[in-house]
């Protein structure tokens, strides 16, 4: 097993923290962060760190690969919701690890023929820029010259940021609680882009809330709705917020993750197997 992959799995390393980016960072942000970190810890530097550099490289390869990033984010989400059955989480972790190893093996087959050439070109460019820095005595601004493999860009539009909200239904308040009110209540966790009311029964009413970011979605999922509504103290919706009872990830059907039908089918099968365990 690749030592870096083993380190990521066994030490439960957060790949976003390794690169210093957030969950909703764009592919350009991830690429830029990688270049900065790679230049800082490159083994060819006097104070370079090979282990750290390999971890940075592996983090970038996973987060810039559409399929692997989606699976990694799904695994993180499952860990975040704290599955009661530890065996289920261990099984999902093992499957993700196997997929990483297979991906690495496939990547190595394509990378070996030209890796030495890429290293030489990268060293040559860096030395030219270092000489230029020495001659002109100006700060180096050439971190974007580090050669990188072309990777698939990740589109954030495929991330599921929708939650299903359950709150106590009161007949006398029915006309007071609409999509706008729900949006005001839930925006305490992050920007809300859409609210869809989903009817009610004798005890509870329901709604779907779509957040602008994964972070906002996760904060809403982590909140303990069995506690008092003191989180809304000082807001105009404090009293109505006390009606909230439960928030969970919405099970939405996503038809296409990428423009590749085969990849889409694999990802749909994967998410289906994950949802069946939750």
UniProtKB/TrEMBL annotation:
<dbReference type="InterPro" id="IPR036869">
    <property type="entry name" value="J_dom_sf"/>
</dbReference>
<keyword id="KW-0143">Chaperone</keyword>
<dbReference type="InterPro" id="IPR018253">
    <property type="entry name" value="DnaJ_domain_CS"/>
</dbReference>
<feature type="domain" description="J">
    <location>
        <begin position="14"/>
        <end position="76"/>
    </location>
</feature>
<dbReference type="GO" id="GO:0000390">
    <property type="term" value="P:spliceosomal complex disassembly"/>
</dbReference>
<dbReference type="InterPro" id="IPR052094">
    <property type="entry name" value="Pre-mRNA-splicing_ERAD"/>
</dbReference>
<protein>
    <submittedName>
        <fullName>DnaJ domain-containing protein</fullName>
    </submittedName>
</protein>
<dbReference type="GO" id="GO:0003676">
    <property type="term" value="F:nucleic acid binding"/>
</dbReference>
<dbReference type="InterPro" id="IPR001623">
    <property type="entry name" value="DnaJ_domain"/>
</dbReference>
<dbReference type="GO" id="GO:0005737">
    <property type="term" value="C:cytoplasm"/>
</dbReference>
<keyword id="KW-0963">Cytoplasm</keyword>
<dbReference type="GO" id="GO:0005681">
    <property type="term" value="C:spliceosomal complex"/>
</dbReference>
<dbReference type="InterPro" id="IPR035979">
    <property type="entry name" value="RBD_domain_sf"/>
</dbReference>
<keyword id="KW-0539">Nucleus</keyword>
<dbReference type="InterPro" id="IPR012677">
    <property type="entry name" value="Nucleotide-bd_a/b_plait_sf"/>
</dbReference>
<dbReference type="Pfam" id="PF00226">
    <property type="entry name" value="DnaJ"/>
</dbReference>
